[in-house]
Amino acid sequence: MHELSIIQSLVDRVEQEVLKAGARSVKRLEVRVGELSGVEPELLSLAWEAFREAGVCAGASLSIEVVATRWSCPRCSLDVPPGTRLRCRVCDVPATLAEGGEIILQRVELEVPDV
Predict the structure, then answer these.
(1) 7 near 40, Cβ under 8 Å?
(2) I want to staple 27 with a disulfide (CB 3.0 to 4.6 A). Which of 2, 41, 95, 109 is the partner?
(3) Reduced to 3 states, what is the DSSP secondary structure of residue 3?
(4) Contact (Cβ atoms closer than 8 angstroms) between residue 24 and residue 59
(5) What are the DSSP calls for 5-67, one per residue?
(6) Which is it for strands 70-72 and 79-80: parallel, antiparallel or unpaired?
(7) Residues of the chain above pLDDT 70, percent
(8) Could you say which DSSP state residue 84 is in?
(9) Distance CA 9, CA 39 (A)
């Protein structure tokens, strides 16, 4: 289950942000996960629940947005409809993955001390 290593990397990155901001705690994380990223959102949530209690993310919630797969033409940017041949119907060039392969830490909500 590579979701554990993804969560470890996520927590490591959040710890850097906590130190940089001088935060007291982490309240919430938002992550974008593409359909073709190879990550199962349910397993990612389970890994988060098991892993977060051991550090700076104790008590923080995790929001996962699943990003639909979208293919487009690299030449004219026209979207290629789902279920069709992965070529541009105008330019006749192979389509490229525009969205759906990513794993992105979108947002981190921290509690910082009053200044």
Answers:
(1) no
(2) 109
(3) helix
(4) no
(5) HHHHHHHHHHHHHHHHHT-SEEEEEEEEEETTSS--HHHHHHHHHHHGGGSTTTT-EEEEEEE
(6) antiparallel
(7) 98
(8) S
(9) 14
| Beta-ladder partners of 71 | 80, 97
Question: What is the rounded CA–CA span in Å between residue 95 and residue 80?
Answer: 7
The structure tokens listed for 66 are 């699943």
The residue that leads in pLDDT, 55 or 106, is 106
Secondary structure (3-state) at 88: coil
The angle formed by the CA atoms of residues 80, 103 and 26, to the nearest 5 degrees, is 145
pLDDT tens digits, 36-84: 999 999 999 999 998 888 788 988 999 999 999 999 999 999 999 999 9
